[in-house]
Amino acid sequence: MKYTPTIGLEIHVQLATKSKMFCRCDNDAENKEPNTVVCPLCMGFPGVLPVTNEIAVEWGVKTALALGCEINKFQRFDRKNYFYPDLPKAYQISQFYFPVGEHGKVKVDYLAPDRKTKKEFEVGITRLHLEEDAGKSIHDKDATLVDYNRCGTPLAEIVTEPDISSPEEARAFLQELQRIVRGLGVSHADMEKGQLRVDANISVRPEGQKEFGTKVEVKNMNSFKFIEQALNHEMERQIKILEDGGKIDQETRGWDEKTSTTISQRGKEGSIDYRYFPEPDLPPIVLDDKQIGEWQKVLSAVLPSDLRNQAEGYGLSYDRVCELQDKNELLGFVETMKSSKDLDASLVANFPGLDVEFYKWASKEKPSNTVLRKVSEAVIKGEDLEKAISEIKVMGEDEAKNIVEEVLQANNEAVEQFKSGESKVLGFLTGQVMAKSKGQADPALVQQILQELLTK
User: Fold this and answer.
1) Which domains does the chain show, CATH number per domain?
2) Beta bridge partners of 26
């Protein structure tokens, strides 16, 4: 029997604001001593009053817009009540009834593992809301210690619809989300540092069955690779249970990267009553169409899907576009192509990050790749373009012909192979000439001379 997986994600994105969500503490606690980036407010002392970080609200709205959400003009913070050692107030300030945005949709395209095929799918976004982070419990063999440095860090929590149909798609969506928030400049989104944290809900059901199977939550995944591995493992585990006539338990499981398995952490729980009620110390956030429109305008310049579409529009193949994206060179490519007409897209992609004048010279003169590489290396080091061009020695035709003749005399066997129909030896002979000329010969000219001499 074939089975269909269903996956939904809950993602916490740590916003890279200078200060925390509701106080003026430094929001960068990396490599800081425990409990040193704190104040009475984020430590939960009595009588303190929070103040909403305006930039966090702006970045939350921009992220929601990038995810296709409808923005709520009226937003409100609520108290989410629960006790845990790393939550000093015994409640978390979050958004429940009136979040930043809802009902979004993201189109995701990605390069399949074969590095050739373009795949596409859509993911619905249930909601995006803002909240403050809790602290961090550190478990030692003798005790559990608490570091409150992270308390109050602004988070954007993103909840997807159960629209993801494979671990491969889950990974692709998360990678796209990382590119989106980095492109917007709202988060560094480094998974290893906890700046992008993911919980995944996964279930399987027999193909054709409309009703979803029993979902299992998977936690503790700190890389895209582990997310895909964990979901693949959990999918196979659930299928095996069903095939053996068993029943899936609704539970929370953690990913153990050492054993490459998921491990049960908590059994089925009922709905937790967080006793949400409006945060009495914070006024509601009220936005207007003009402000939302201003934030909307900046999106098209940085959304990765738009950049990929523009790059394809300039004639680059999709796999080449994704290669530039993986090297963080796609934005530079698109901006360069926009800056001047009639530029060669392949040339700009092969020699990224250079001045437009380099591309104009290369398009006009059509030098060999050897010359292009040497000039580009000189320009990257800070040398003037005209000076770099003048200093690159390019071997003349007569000198090149002399070296070709020497190579042919030294490789009689290869010459005979070419004359008997083995044209692939032409590449070998070209390589020999380029080596003997120390890269100063023009490869195109070398091949032309070889053809002429070998076909006499």
Assistant:
1) 3-289 (no CATH), 310-391 (no CATH), 397-454 (1.10.10.410)
2) 19
Dihedral angle, C-alpha 335, 338, 342, 348, nearest 10 °: 10
Which residue do the tokens 């063999």 mark? Answer: 141
104 vs 102: CA distance, rounded Å: 6
Q: Whole-prediction pTM value?
A: 0.87
Closest CA to 99 of 65, 130, 55, 141: 130
HEC secondary structure over 13-73: EECCCCECCCCCCECCCCCCCCCCCCCCCCCCCCCCCCCCCHHHHHHHHHHHHHCCCEECC
Q: Residues for the chain: how many in total?
A: 456
Residue 253 CA to residue 261 CA, distance in Å, equals 10
Structure tokens at 430: 């070209």
Q: What radius of gyration do the chain's Cα atoms show? A: 29
What is d(CA 343, CA 113) in angstroms, rounded to the nearest whole number? Answer: 31
Residue-wise pLDDT tens digits, 6-16: 999 999 999 99
